[in-house]
Structure formats: C-alpha cells, structure tokens
Amino acid sequence: MKASGIVIRVLADDLKGSRHQKFVVRIKSGKEILIVHNIDIAPRINGLKKGDKIEFLGDYQWNSQGGMVHWTHADPHQQHQSGWIKYHGETYQ
Fold first, then answer.
1. What total of structural domains would you count in the chain?
2. pTM for the structure as a whole
3. In this predicted model, what pLDDT tens digit does every residue of 72-91 receive, in sequence order?
4. DSSP secondary-structure letter at 32?
5. Beta carbons within 10 angstroms of residue 6's beta carbon
6. What CATH number is associated with residue 52?
C-alpha cells in the first residue's frame, strides 16, 4: 500500500523481538492505519508527532480496527518488495 496521511497517535515502541516504532495515521479516506516500522533494519523517525504528515509504502494487512502496514523498510535478504516512509523531506528505509 502506498499512501499518505496525518499522524494521529504515536505509540510506545514494541521492543519484543525485532524492535518496531509504532504510530497511527489517518489517510484521505478517513481510515486509520497502524504503521509498524522496523527500527532494527531502518532508521528511527525521530521527532515524529501527532499532526505530522507522512507518506509510506509497505504491506497492508486488514484488521477490524482499520489495518496495519509493515515492511516499511528495505528487505536485507532481497526476497520482499522494499518499502519506505517519507517524513520532512527524508526517506526512511
């Protein structure tokens, strides 16, 4: 899924296993999507806060709460499409 949206919540990092930065984005359709960004592979998005605009590309998985996007980074094993997050002119992958 490639989309853009506004950050509506920044959540605590998930530090179990591979570490992930987590936040919720509202896209144009009004749907709220959880972004799960692997910070063991890609750089952390420092300074991210509610109200910030981001663009992203990653794998979307539907759930009853709107869904989630992961694989917002390059695949170190080159077996999966690489994703990214764009924030304040920087690309995180």
1. 1
2. 0.92
3. 998 888 888 889 999 999 99
4. E
5. 14
6. 2.40.50
